[in-house]
C-alpha cells in the first residue's frame, strides 16, 4: 500500500445522505475477478444524468469527495472503495461512515475523513462559491482545509488506521509478525469447535 | 462488574491485546462465496502466502447463480468466470466447496446454520454484510471486505477495535400474524440506517425468546441495515434443539461439553450496556417500506408519508428523493400500491419456515393477474425439504414460479431482476435504488405480506384475503 501523508485536489460535492454501496457501485458491476476497472460502475445509476456532479467538466479531475451523512451503508463490497479509487478519489469526507465501508477504506488506502456535519456544509458552501476549488487533507495533522482558507477544521480517523496509512504498512504482514501468539491461541481452542474438513 | 454476552464471546477470541491497537481476534469460521473472494486469493498468491486454516473455511456459490437451468453452464460469461474462479481457488487451496448441484449449495447464511457449523460463542466472518445472520445463535458474526477476507485466509485472525454494546429489549409477545421481519423493520424505522453504528447489539426480551431460530436469524440478518457491527441473541434451549441433529454439530461427549459452555454465554445480571432501546412487541403490526432505505418504512395500514412532515431537513430531502424514485404520491394508502413482482427468498426470509408460512397464506388462492411471484429457496436443502412437504405444489398451483436456490432477486446479480419502473414486494433486506435491477422499485415486506400481496396484486396482509376455496 502507498503511504498517505497529505493530499490536495479538486473537491466534489455529493449532496446526498445515505449513499449506500449499491449506489456507489451496483451489483452487476461486481463480476470482475481483478481489483481494477471498477470506475465504470461508480455511481452508475447517476452517470447518465447530465446534471450529476461527476458529469460536469469542472469536477472531471475530482479527488476529494465531500458527501452527506451515512456514506457507504449496506453491502460489504470493497469494490465500492476500489471504484472510488479507480476513478481517482483519494479521500472521502463525510459526517458519518458505515463501519464496513470505513474499514475497507483503511485497508485499501482510501482516506475516510469523518468531520462534523457543519464542516461538510461549509465545504459544500465553499465548492458552491468556488466550483472546482481544491481541498487539502493532511493526515498527520488530521485537518481538512479549503484553498481559500475559508474552511480549516479537524477530522477523525482511528489512530491505528492513521498510523498504517502514514507508513503504508501491510496489515497482513503486521499480523503475521505475531504468529507465535496465533499458534499459542490455537493450542487452547476446545476440541468440539466445528471444522469444515 | 458482569459482562454482556458479546463481551464474553469477544474476550474468548482475543489472540493479542495491546493498548492503542485493535484487538487481534481469532476467527472460528470463515464463509466464502464467489463475488468477494477472487481478489483475496489473488492477493495471497501475489504475496506468496499460504492459507492458514482451510479446515475452518467453507465456500458456496450463491450471488451469481441462476435459479433456472442450474444444471447447465451459466449463460452470463462474466458470472460464469467468477464462479469458475471460486472453484479453481477452492481446489488450489483445499477449501470445501458446495457448488451448484450440491445438496448444500445455497445462500452462504442459510448453508452455515443448516450444516450445524454455526454454533453459539463463535466468531464468524464472511465477505458479505448479512453475516450478522449467524448472531442468532449467540455468535459474533459480521461482514468484512475483500482485504479482510485475504487477512483471514492468511492468518485466521482479524484486527478489530472493540465495539460498544447495545441492548434491544422487546417486551411482551408479537401479535398473531406479525413476524420477526415486521419487528426488525419497525425497529429500523425508529433508529434510521445509522442508529446501530459502532455497536454490537444484543436482542433480548420475551418476544425474542419466543421466536424460532429462523425468526431470530431474520432479526439478526438485518442488524446491518441499521448500521450495527453485529447483532446477536443469547443461546437457549431453542438454540440447542435446532443445532443438535445437524450434520456438523458436536456429538456425544463433545456435545455435552459444548452445551455446558454455551450455557455460560448469557449477559450477566449486573452487566451494563452502553445503550439500550426498549420496544413493546404488542405494538408491532405488519410493516412495509415506502422509500429507498430500510429505515423508510411504515405500518401497512398507514399511507405514504408527506416529506413536509419530517422535522429533520435531511430526512425531508431524503423522503422527497425516495418518493420521486419510487413513483409514489404522499397520502396514498400503502394498501393501494400495485405491485408487479413478489419475491419470496433471500438470506432474510428464504428458509423452510418462511416457505411454510408463504404456502399457508397462499394455499387455495391464485396469484393476481398481472403479478408474478418468484419463490426462491435459500438452499438446495430447503428446496428439497419444501418439495417433500408439498409446498412446491401449493406455489405452482397458485401460479408462482418455483425456482432453484441462491441470492437471486435480492440483488439481481443473476438474471432475476426488475425492469426499470417495475415495482416489487420483496422479503429481502434492501430497498436501495436499483438494488433489484436498474430503475426497479422495492418494498420490503414480511413473508405473509408478500404472499397476500401476490394474491391481491396490491400491498396486503393475509387478513385482507377472501377465504380460500378448500
TrEMBL record, chain A:
The keyword Amino-acid biosynthesis applies. CDD domains: IPMI_Swivel. GO terms for molecular function: 3-isopropylmalate dehydratase activity. SUPFAM superfamilies: LeuD/IlvD-like. Keywords: Amino-acid biosynthesis, Branched-chain amino acid biosynthesis, Leucine biosynthesis, Lyase. Residues 1-115 form the Aconitase A/isopropylmalate dehydratase small subunit swivel domain. Its EC number is 4.2.1.33. Signal peptide: none annotated. It catalyses: (2R,3S)-3-isopropylmalate = (2S)-2-isopropylmalate. GO terms for biological process: L-leucine biosynthetic process. Pfam families: Aconitase_C. GO terms for cellular component: 3-isopropylmalate dehydratase complex. It is an enzyme of class 4 (lyase). Pathway: Amino-acid biosynthesis; L-leucine biosynthesis; L-leucine from 3-methyl-2-oxobutanoate: step 2/4. Belongs to the LeuD family. LeuD type 1 subfamily. PANTHER family: 3-ISOPROPYLMALATE DEHYDRATASE SMALL SUBUNIT, 3-ISOPROPYLMALATE DEHYDRATASE SMALL SUBUNIT 2-RELATED-RELATED. Catalyzes the isomerization between 2-isopropylmalate and 3-isopropylmalate, via the formation of 2-isopropylmaleate. Heterodimer of LeuC and LeuD. NCBIfam families: leuD, PRK01641.1. This is 3-isopropylmalate dehydratase small subunit. The lineage of its organism: Bacteria, Bacillati, Actinomycetota, Actinomycetes, Propionibacteriales.
From TrEMBL, chain B:
CDD domains: IPMI. GO terms for biological process: L-leucine biosynthetic process. Coiled coil: none annotated. It catalyses: (2R,3S)-3-isopropylmalate = (2S)-2-isopropylmalate. InterPro entries: 3-IsopropMal_deHydase_lsu, Acnase/IPM_dHydase_lsu_aba_1/3, Acoase/IPM_deHydtase_lsu_aba, Aconitase_4Fe-4S_BS, Aconitase_4Fe-4S_dom, IPM_dehydratase_rel_enz, IPMI_cat. SUPFAM superfamilies: Aconitase iron-sulfur domain. Its EC number is 4.2.1.33. Pfam families: Aconitase. Residues 418-439 are annotated as: Disordered. Keywords: 4Fe-4S, Amino-acid biosynthesis, Branched-chain amino acid biosynthesis, Iron, Iron-sulfur, Leucine biosynthesis, Lyase, Metal-binding. [4Fe-4S] cluster binds at residues 347, 407, 410. Its cofactor is [4Fe-4S] cluster. GO terms for molecular function: 3-isopropylmalate dehydratase activity; 4 iron, 4 sulfur cluster binding; metal ion binding. Residues 7-457 form the Aconitase/3-isopropylmalate dehydratase large subunit alpha/beta/alpha domain. Pathway: Amino-acid biosynthesis; L-leucine biosynthesis; L-leucine from 3-methyl-2-oxobutanoate: step 2/4. Binds 1 [4Fe-4S] cluster per subunit. Catalyzes the isomerization between 2-isopropylmalate and 3-isopropylmalate, via the formation of 2-isopropylmaleate. Heterodimer of LeuC and LeuD. Belongs to the aconitase/IPM isomerase family. LeuC type 1 subfamily. PANTHER family: 3-ISOPROPYLMALATE DEHYDRATASE, HOMOACONITASE, MITOCHONDRIAL-RELATED. This is 3-isopropylmalate dehydratase large subunit. It comes from Nocardioides terrae. The gene is leuC.
Amino acid at each position: 500500500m502507498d503511504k498517505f501523508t497529505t493530499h490536495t485536489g479538486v473537491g466534489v460535492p455529493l449532496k446526498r445522505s445515505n449513499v449506500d454501496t449499491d449506489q456507489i457501485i451496483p451489483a452487476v458491476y461486481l463480476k470482475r475477478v481483478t481489483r481494477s476497472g471498477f470506475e465504470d460502475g461508480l455511481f452508475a445509476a447517476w452517470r447518465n444524468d447530465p446534471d450529476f456532479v461527476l458529469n460536469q467538466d469542472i469536477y472531471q479531475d475530482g479527488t476529494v469527495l465531500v458527501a452527506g451523512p451515512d456514506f457507504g451503508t449496506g453491502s460489504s463490497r470493497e469494490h465500492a472503495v476500489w471504484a472510488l479509487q479507480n476513478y481517482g478519489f483519494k479521500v472521502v469526507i463525510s459526517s458519518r461512515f458505515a463501519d464496513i465501508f470505513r474499514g475497507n477504506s483503511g485497508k485499501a488506502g482510501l482516506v475516510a475523513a469523518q468531520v462534523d456535519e457543519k464542516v461538510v456544509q461549509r465545504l459544500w458552501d465553499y465548492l458552491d462559491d468556488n466550483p472546482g476549488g481544491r481541498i487539502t487533507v493532511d493526515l498527520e495533522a488530521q485537518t481538512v482545509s479549503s484553498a481559500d482558507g475559508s474552511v480549516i477544521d479537524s477530522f477523525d480517523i482511528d489512530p491505528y488506521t492513521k498510523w498504517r496509512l502514514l507508513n503504508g504498512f501491510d496489515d497482513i504482514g503486521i499480523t503475521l509478525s505475531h504468529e507465535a501468539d496465533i499458534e499459542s491461541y490455537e493450542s487452547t481452542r476446545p476440541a468440539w469447535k466445528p471444522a469444515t474438513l | 462488574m458482569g459482562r454482556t454476552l458479546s463481551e464474553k464471546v469477544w474476550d474468548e477470541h482475543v489472540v493479542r491485546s495491546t493498548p492503542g491497537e485493535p484487538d487481534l481476534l481469532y476467527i472460528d469460521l470463515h464463509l466464502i462465496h464467489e463475488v468477494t473472494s477472487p481478489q483475496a486469493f489473488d492477493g495471497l498468491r501475489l504475496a506468496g502466502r499460504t492459507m492458514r486454516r482451510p479446515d475452518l473455511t467453507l465456500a458456496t456459490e450463491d450471488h451469481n447463480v441462476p435459479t433456472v437451468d442450474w444444471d447447465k453452464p451459466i449463460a452470463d460469461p462474466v458470472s460464469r468466470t467468477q464462479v469458475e474462479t471460486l472453484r479453481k481457488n477452492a481446489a488450489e487451496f483445499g477449501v470445501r466447496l458446495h457448488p451448484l448441484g450440491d445438496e448444500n449449495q445455497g445462500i452462504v447464511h442459510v448453508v452455515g446454520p443448516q450444516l450445524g457449523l454455526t454454533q453459539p460463542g463463535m466468531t464468524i466472518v464472511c465477505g458479505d454484510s448479512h453475516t450478522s445472520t449467524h448472531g442468532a445463535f449467540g455468535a459474533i458474526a459480521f461482514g468484512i471486505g475483500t482485504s479482510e477476507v485475504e487477512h483471514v485466509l492468511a492468518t485466521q485472525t482479524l484486527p478489530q477495535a472493540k465495539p460498544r454494546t447495545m441492548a434491544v429489549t422487546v417486551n411482551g409477545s408479537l401479535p398473531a400474524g406479525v413476524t420477526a421481519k415486521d419487528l426488525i423493520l419497525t425497529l429500523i424505522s425508529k433508529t434510521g440506517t445509522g442508529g446501530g453504528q459502532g455497536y454490537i447489539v444484543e436482542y433480548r426480551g420475551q418476544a425474542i425468546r419466543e421466536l424460532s431460530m429462523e425468526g431470530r436469524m431474520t432479526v439478526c440478518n438485518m442488524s446491518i441495515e441499521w448500521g450495527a457491527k453485529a447483532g446477536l441473541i443469547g443461546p437457549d434451549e431453542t438454540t440447542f434443539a435446532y443445532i443438535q441433529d445437524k450434520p456438523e454439530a458436536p456429538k456425544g461427549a463433545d456435545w455435552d461439553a459444548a452445551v455446558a459452555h454455551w450455557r455460560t454465554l448469557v449477559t450477566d445480571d449486573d452487566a451494563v450496556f452502553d445503550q439500550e432501546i426498549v420496544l413493546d412487541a404488542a405494538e408491532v403490526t405488519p410493516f412495509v417500506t415506502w422509500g429507498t432505505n430500510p429505515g423508510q418504512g411504515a405500518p401497512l395500514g398507514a399511507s405514504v408519508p408527506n416529506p413536509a412532515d419530517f422535522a429533520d431537513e435531511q430526512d425531508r430531502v431524503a423522503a422527497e428523493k425516495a418518493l420521486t424514485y419510487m413513483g409514489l404520491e404522499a397520502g396514498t394508502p400503502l394498501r393501494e400500491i400495485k405491485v408487479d413482482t413478489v419475491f419470496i427468498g433471500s438470506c432474510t426470509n428464504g428458509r423452510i419456515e418462511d416457505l411454510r408460512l408463504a404456502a399457508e397464506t397462499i394455499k387455495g388462492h391464485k396469484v393476481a393477474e398481472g403479478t408474478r411471484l418468484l419463490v426462491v429457496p435459500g438452499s438446495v436443502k430447503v428446496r428439497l425439504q419444501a418439495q417433500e412437504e408439498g409446498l412446491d405444489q401449493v406455489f405452482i398451483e397458485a401460479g408462482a414460479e418455483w425456482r432453484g436456490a441462491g441470492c437471486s432477486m435480492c440483488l439481481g446479480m443473476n438474471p432475476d431482476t426488475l425492469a426499470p419502473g417495475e415495482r416489487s414486494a420483496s422479503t429481502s433486506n434492501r430497498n436501495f435504488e436499483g438494488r433489484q435491477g436498474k430503475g426497479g422499485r422495492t418494498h420490503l415486506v414480511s413473508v405473509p405480506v408478500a404472499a397476500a400481496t401476490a394474491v391481491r396484486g396490491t400491498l396486503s396482509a393475509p387478513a385482507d384475503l377472501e377465504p380460500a376455496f378448500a
